[in-house]
Batch of 4 targets.
Target 1
Amino acid sequence: MRTSYGVVWRVGESPLARGKLELLPRVVRLDGVTGEERVAFEIPYEELECVHVGRTPAERLNGHQTLVLEQRGREPVVVSAVAQAGVLAEITERVAKLTLS
């Protein structure tokens, strides 16, 4: 099973970023660009309070459902898969399993 996915994401109200999401043994890693600025950060699974599929208009990106990663004391990260149907469900399932581990 793969551990890297092409995604777009937004942290809170920040500009949309594009790049990849990696499911590493202890963290979700997002690595890419927003405009011309490079952005990369990691979210430890142990810091995730809630993981759910975003269906409301405020949680969607470009009208698409998203994976919402809610961390303690931080703005939520909203992630959408790029170009591959079903990938969002796969990512959501894998993150949920890793969070419970």
Target 2
Amino acid sequence: MLTDTIKAALWEELRFAKRQQWTITAAVVALIGGAYSIASEEHRLDAWEKAVITILIAAAVMVGIYWLSDLQRHLHNTRLGIDPCDPDPWWRGADVASGMVGAMILSAVVVCYLLLRDGAWEMLLAICLAFGMLPMGF
């Protein structure tokens, strides 16, 4: 049986984890926007630089999705700590988390399209093929 103090602490932990999800989403989207502002027309980056920025954007989105899913798992465990008979601890709030994932992916797709539309996609493909041909053990 949980005391009122422990239950209040677990509720506060839920609020904190939800705030962290919003913070991660905002940080990744801001990072994507910053990458686009670096690669704007004023700076005239080469194709390989745009390809590297695209790879970094993809990595940032993957890390952001991992952190969001990790926080969703933490929310699941905390909800079970509050109420072990909770019927759907994983799916409560999953629609918001999936919206956050969607926002990160959508902003990354738009920015990557804008970066690669001038032929830099060929350089991205060459970089990916070069990494694909490396032996697995390096």
Target 3
Amino acid sequence: MFGQDSKVQLAVLNERFKVHEAMVERVDTAIQTLSETNQNICRMLAVHEEKIITQARVDEDVYKKIEDVECKVEGLYKFRWQAGGVVAVVMVLIGAFNAWGPKVLTGPSPSTTMERSN
């Protein structure tokens, strides 16, 4: 019924079919591996995104704390200049009191009153 050529062609087609089946299996395996890799990458990206969000929150907290410290330091600078001004005014007042205070508190000395009356 089938000639020799038909049997040879059928054998060749069977071999090609087997080769194609093997290639399809390899492609299926590659697709599965790519799917697994894709899932792993998605998980890694999610973890990295969470880390980035957490780091952003930490950075915001650090910036707020730095601003608070800067405000406190600025307040200390203002206090230093204010305290220096108060000390300067007190020293000027003490100097003025030392110059005129004894004269005002004790009144004229008896020797100066006698000299004036003469």
Target 4
Amino acid sequence: MIIATQIRGARAMTGMSKEQLAAASGLPVDIIETLERDGAQGEPSALIAVKVALENAGVLFIASGNHDEGGPGVRLKARAGSDEGIRPENLNSANDD
């Protein structure tokens, strides 16, 4: 299951406010605040609702031990066909905006 630091990190990465996460997960804001303080104290159904809402916003949850050393984490999903911007070698005053 996900932990409090993953919830806080995922919300920060997506730019979601507590209110937006509450709306997306169907939970009250005070439950979101409780989960962000101590995810272990949350009801499993609330944790699942938050996890699903954040995954729908583009977050991948990484379990402890999946990647070399380190604990559980989060990252954003790769976006197919995403705009990578302008490569440094192509920067000039004409496209400086």
